[in-house]
Design brief:
200 residues; 2 domains
Length: 200
């Protein structure tokens, strides 16, 4: 598979992320730069950069004298705690910045919602997971939570390794519509309630 030179790093990173979320690389798998570079038809540099990015996001872990390993999902108790931390960040940012958002940021959230709908309509579980997180990230950015996004993304990546809410795509989309509408209308109470109902 050949990649466009101008966006090699992004394309390699995105594809490996999709592979991780789709289960192509099970937990504990050691990833090899050479093998992936050959697969993508690129040098080892973009693969190495992708490993660094995905390690920062929490999908991969460096093992001393071994290389890069796919991280194991958190156990149920840890996942419950991680979920609570993610929820705290989202509610804090929304409470702080909901009424300060501008029209362009609302449009960015709406675009993310449309992308989620497309993924749900296509019943593409990996894309649903990715678009789900994209939607929530746009909410955070709209409310001025830029500084907290890196920490938040680490929590999300841990949750995505055990993403289980993919059975009813219509419900998944409806839950996000229920977040977007009060968010758009500056209804703090309903926005927070909808976020709490969605993040599980």
């Amino acid at each position: 598979m050949s990649l466009i030179p101008q966006t090699v790093r992004e394309q390699v990173t995105n594809q490996i992320r999709i592979d991780l979320l789709s289960g192509r690389f099970p937990a504990g798998t050691m990833l090899r730069e050479i093998e992936l570079a050959e697969r993508f038809g690129v040098s080892r540099g973009p693969v190495r950069d992708a490993f660094i990015q995905l390690s920062h996001e929490g999908y991969l872990a460096y093992q001393a004298n071994r290389g890069v390993m796919v991280r194991h999902p958190p156990d149920p108790k840890d996942r419950e705690f991680i979920t609570s931390l993610r929820l705290q960040i989202e509610t804090y940012v929304i409470e702080r910045g909901l009424t300060d958002k501008d029209p362009d940021s609302v449009q960015s959230v709406e675009v993310a919602l449309e992308r989620l709908k497309e993924a749900c309509d296509a019943a593409e579980p990996t894309q649903v997971a990715i678009r789900d997180i994209e939607f929530h990230q746009q909410i955070l950015l709209a409310c001025g939570g830029d500084d907290l996004v890196p920490t938040w993304r680490q929590l999300c990546s841990r949750m995505l390794l055990t993403y289980t809410r993919l059975g009813d795509y219509n419900q998944a989309y409806s839950e996000h519509v229920a977040i977007f509408e009060p968010f758009r209308d500056n209804d703090l109470k309903k926005t927070i309630a909808a976020v709490r109902a969605n993040i599980k």
